[in-house]
Amino acid sequence: MEENSVSQARAEAVAAAMDEIREIEAELGVTRAGVEAIRDRLVELSSQRELFPLTDFPTPDDSVNENSFMYRLAQDTDDRFALYAQASSGHVETPPHNHTTWAVVVGFDGQELNRFYERTDEGGVAEVDHHLVESGTGVAMLPDDLHSIHIDGTALNFHCYGLALERLDGREYYDSDNGEWKIFKSTSGIREGRTNLQGC
């Protein structure tokens, strides 16, 4: 498939998936069943491997002080229903955090360990589960669910949210060194991965 036709086919496949994701949320709401159905639809999208060549989503190199790039694949004009491809190299790790919106992570290349937590009576967190996200698998989270991600090596994963990352300025994370909850800064520096900016 030629480069232009790959980009066009990817845009169409992403748009179709996001249309169905909107319908899923409208039908099932922000529920466990709803986010799991969204996860399954994104796993289906990720199975179209020819549409997402790794060369279209380069990972950071030694010239930048970052271990991952986030590429925007879809985002509604009101900043809802946002889809990203996260390209990682080296070691990437986050503290336990929530999202304040529903969130889904689906694997494509490499592996991303997701650890899940519950708040303790003492105000901290306790790990209750984990899942290795890789090709053909994913995890689905409600707004208050807590998780952390851990990547070693290169990986490309899809991240989908009910609200764009730039708008998530109330996310909490647990600072284990100080034993307290803090607020994540909203994400910036997202790279444009859409081929058709007239629609998502």
Description:
It is a single chain. The chain is α+β, with helices and mostly antiparallel strands and 200 residues long. The chain has a single domain, classed as Sandwich (Jelly Rolls), CATH 2.60.120.10. The protein has helices spanning 3-28, 32-46; strands at residues 68-74, 80-88, 91-93, 103-109, 112-119, 125-133, 138-141, 146-152, 155-163, 172-175, 180-183, 191-192. The longest helix is centred in the N-terminal third of the chain and has 26 residues, at 3-28.
Structural class, judged by helices and strands? Answer: alpha+beta
Instruction: Enumerate how many helices there are, as a single number.
Output: 2
Residue share in β-strands: 35-45%
Low-confidence stretches: none
Mean residue pLDDT: 94
Largest pleated sheet: 6 strands, mixed
Q: Globular, elongated, flat, extended or rod-shaped: what is the shape?
A: globular
Number of domains: 1
- Strands of the widest sheet, in order across it, are 7-4-9-2-1-12
Name of the CATH class: Mainly Beta
Element-level helix/strand string: HHEEEEEEEEEEEE
CATH superfamily: Jelly Rolls
The appropriate CATH architecture is Sandwich
Rg, Å, rounded: 16 Å
